[in-house]
Design brief:
The chain is mainly alpha-helical and about 260 residues long. It has one domain. The protein is built from ten helices and no strands. The two termini are about 25 Å apart.
């Protein structure tokens, strides 16, 4: 185990140094879109109380946190690896090193995990303050399960970003993946509305996407007084993470990179 952790550190070190030297730019890129979503959807387009008894601001903030975990974790991992593979060719050199494939998968996803967590918790802190000021009280909570679910969400979408980067043959194909997969998930996976309010057919379709599980899970963890914790979504998100991890490992093992 200690040897595996050491190898993960070796793999992640370069990405962490990259983040350290570009921290301000990365921070601005990570939180700008979620803040705009928060202002537009949480404070601009709708007011009042939702069907679960909380204000729409408190309802939408956990969804935007889940969305932030997707955007920050996925984009940082996929973009960094895409550049390393297709431009610098440094990823091929790392593959020739005597490193465990498990260490490579976890190490290359550390950038997405760290960047995603920073963006999520900054956004949640802003949401807590703005939400309390808007509705005159506190409905959201920072619970241990909220932290666990946010970490899990960032890990899952970091694995997804790695899989997309390994499958991409060009920068254009990565842009196509974002347009076909990431952009629809942004607006359709329960981040701004309740999935349970939709027709069962549409619910079934949306539960085929990982962000739906993340949105429902983080929302139930952030609103413990209004929602029961969704253990089924927790299991579903873990299964998505295992699936993405298996894809990453298989692509590395078969050298389909």
């Amino acid at each position: 185990m200690s040897n595996l952790l050491r190898q993960i550190y070796y793999v992640a070190w370069g990405d962490m140094m990259f983040m350290r030297h570009n921290f301000l730019n990365i921070l601005i890129m990570s939180i700008m879109s979620p803040i705009l979503y928060l202002i537009a959807f949480g404070f601009g387009l709708r007011t009042g109380t939702t069907d679960i008894g909380v204000s729409y601001v408190s309802f939408v903030i956990p969804g935007i946190v889940a969305l932030s975990s997707l955007n920050s974790s996925f984009s940082s991992t996929s973009t960094r690896m895409n550049v390393q593979r297709l431009y610098y060719r440094s990823f091929d050199e790392m593959m020739m090193c005597p490193l465990s494939l498990h260490a490579i998968v976890w190490g290359k996803c550390m950038l997405g995990l760290v960047r995603g967590l920073i963006a999520c918790f900054i956004l949640y802190a802003l949401g807590l303050g703005l939400g309390a000021a808007r509705i005159g009280g506190m409905e959201l909570e920072l619970t241990p399960m909220f932290v666990v679910c946010t970490v899990l969400s960032c890990i899952v979408f970091s694995f997804l970003g790695m899989a997309a980067a390994l499958l991409a043959k060009s920068h254009q194909s990565m842009a196509t993946f974002n347009s076909l997969i990431i952009l629809p998930m942004t607006f359709l996976c329960g981040t701004f509305f309740s999935v349970s309010a939709l027709h069962p057919v549409f619910q079934t379709v949306l539960y085929c996407l990982p962000l739906t599980y993340s949105s429902e899970l983080i929302r139930s963890a952030a609103l413990p007084d209004f929602l029961e914790f969704d253990w089924l979504c927790l299991v579903g998100l873990i299964l998505w993470g295992v699936a993405f991890y298996a894809i990453d490992y298989w692509l590395l093992k078969t050298r389909k990179v």
